[in-house]
Write a structure and sequence with these properties.
It catalyses: cytidine + ATP = CMP + ADP + H(+); uridine + ATP = UMP + ADP + H(+). The chain is α/β, with parallel strands linked by helices. The chain contains 15 helices and 25 strands.
């Protein structure tokens, strides 16, 4: 209960963990596709952990988190964030340790279930922030997004039917009452400076009654009972079960995206693909950008020009409203308004960077976000490594009103495009409000995007017909950087002659390689081994736009 909760301590889980009280988000080596080839999200795996106060629920949750250190994203969602908003009278009673925070009515179960359901379905959500110091829910909220595994912990985690319906696995931490009381006394005296008499009074009045009447009876709903101490074996079994469940949900479909259905429409038949008018100016710019002999300073200049042309073409298709104004000559002019309102840009790093410059030229002070999407070395599947979106997309209420320009220099297989679009949909942006801007797109990518998200618009300067699988040598004994230049330039590392892959493990090292890559998660293999990169390359294409634009 808030009157006797210690200040949460940050556990040592991972350098990629982030914390807010007991809520923990642990990210590791990137999030693999959490959706099917047709764009439908696959629900996260949810575990509910209940038990008495000081039974060890949080310790069990964090031990599972630590055991799943190779899983892309694990989230611990604590019941403590969902205490109801209190009146001043209730706050005064809480300050005097005279308010029962251990009763089910003290928890906003409706909001708790709503936020958990959003997270399970892959949607972004905002959870409340509760102050134990002031015994009140604050106005601020905590933004959460993206989890393969969600661990819910709290004394009432199994008490409400609407919560139990969302769990894939229900766990109860069973602990001896004397041990729970001893832990409470030690915790509250050492960390809260409270006296033993006050602790015992609170325990006898509220805590024990809650445990006997609500918490312990909820154990009948548990699939697994875990001891509150000496539980290493139980944790290992839980972690093994989770890894098996997640392996069964693993999605691999990059190669499927490069196999066109014979009945698939051609790019010209797809209504939402807009090819920028092929004027002599545009064709001249594309000739310069496609040429391997173009110097970097020329490439930057003409890439910026092209991005401006494509941005203007995209803006011409966005909704607008009429507006009458009076000119400087005192004459009424029938114009338009709202062309720049509610527009944001989201760049797929790095090759979306040139579009950010073009967008800023057209719309001053446009909000910009970014996504870092790279290829996973063993499979070639895209990995979502980082998401930084404007605050207007953190709330689904505002996200649904935004027009989002998704920026990338080229679409090859369409895998990175599908991932980026899925992220925006998870945040509440409607398909029809998403426009993908790109220098060039392959017909395979058009097919992939149209099949999954038919209402998303694509605006491009060129549509290339070929998507070839090529093999490129890799220098043995070096760390392999990911294909950071193009999120859609898929690449995977294999042994020569298609031998089995045998990696030593993930190493996060920024190092270049034969493809001119430089940033991201890499894999190291033994010196002397022969490896290749197998990649799908758009032809005629224009090479690695990110490398040509940013690297000298």
């Amino acid at each position: 209960m808030p009157g006797h909760k210690p200040t949460p301590r940050r556990p040592s889980l991972s350098p990629h963990s982030s914390f807010r009280g007991k809520n923990v988000v642990m990210a590791s080596r990137g999030r693999a596709p959490w959706y099917t080839p047709d764009g439908k999200a696959v629900p996260a795996y949810v575990i509910g952990i209940a038990g008495g106060s000081s039974s060890g629920k949080t310790s069990v949750a964090r031990a599972i988190c630590k055991g799943l250190n190779n899983i892309p994203t694990v989230l611990i969602l604590s019941q403590d964030a969902f205490y109801k908003r209190h009146t001043q009278e209730e706050i005064d009673r809480a300050m005097n340790n005279d308010f029962d925070f251990d009763h089910p009515d003290s928890i906003d179960m409706e909001l708790f279930a709503q936020c958990l359901n959003d997270l399970k379905l892959g949607r972004a959500t905002e959870i409340p922030v509760y102050s134990f110091e002031h015994h009140q829910r604050l106005e601020e909220k905590q933004y959460l997004y993206g989890a393969s595994v969600i661990i819910v912990e709290g004394i009432m985690a199994l008490q409400a039917a609407e919560m139990r319906d969302l769990y894939d696995l229900k766990v109860f931490v069973n602990c001896d009452s004397d041990l729970m009381l001893a832990r409470r006394i030690r915790r509250d005296t050492v960390e809260r400076g409270r006296d033993v008499d006050g602790i015992l009074d609170q325990y006898l009045r509220f805590v024990k009654s809650s445990y006997d009447n609500f918490v312990q009876p909820s154990s009948k709903y548990a699939d697994i009972i875990v001891p509150g101490h000496h539980n290493d074996t139980a944790i290992e079994l839980l972690v093994t079960h989770l890894q098996r469940q997640l392996d069964a949900r693993s999605l691999r479909f990059r190669r499927e995206l490069v196999e066109l259905d014979s009945t698939a429409p051609t790019p010209s038949e797809v209504v939402n693909v807009q090819l920028v008018p092929q004027t002599n100016q545009l064709l001249g710019i594309m000739t310069i950008l496609r040429s391997a002999d173009t110097k970097r300073n020329e490439f930057i200049f003409y890439a910026d020009r092209l991005s401006t042309i494509i941005v203007e073409a995209a803006l011409a298709e966005l909704p607008r409203q009429s507006k009458d104004i009076t000119t400087a000559n005192g004459v009424t002019f029938h114009g338009v308004d709202g062309c720049d309102s509610n527009i944001i840009g989201v760049s797929i790093l790095r090759s979306g960077g040139p579009f950010a410059n073009g967008l800023r030229r057209v719309i001053r002070d446009v909000p910009l976000g970014s996504m870092l999407i790279q290829s996973e070395p063993q499979s070639g599947e895209p990995l979502l490594l980082d998401v930084k979106l404007p605050e207007s997309l953190h709330s689904r209420n505002t996200a649904r009103t935004m027009q989002v320009l998704l920026l990338d220099s080229q679409m090859g297989t369409g895998a990175a495009a599908l991932m980026a679009i899925r992220v925006l949909l998870d945040h509440g942006v409607p398909q029809s409000n998403i426009t993908f801007l790109t220098f060039l797109v392959s017909r395979y990518a058009v097919h992939s995007v149209h099949r999954a998200f038919p209402s998303v618009r694509i605006v491009t300067a060129a549509i290339d017909d070929e998507l070839d699988e090529v093999r490129l040598p890799v220098v043995a004994g070096h760390t392999l950087g990911e294909v950071s230049a193009e999120g859609d330039f898929s690449a995977r590392v294999v042994a020569m002659h298609e031998d089995a892959i045998d990696f030593e493990g993930g190493v996060e090292t920024p190092t270049g390689d034969a493809l001119g890559n430089g940033v991201g998660v890499g894999l190291r293999f033994s010196r002397g081994e022969k490896k290749e990169k197998i990649a799908w390359v758009v032809k005629p294409g224009m090479g690695h736009v990110g490398d040509r634009y940013y690297l000298s």
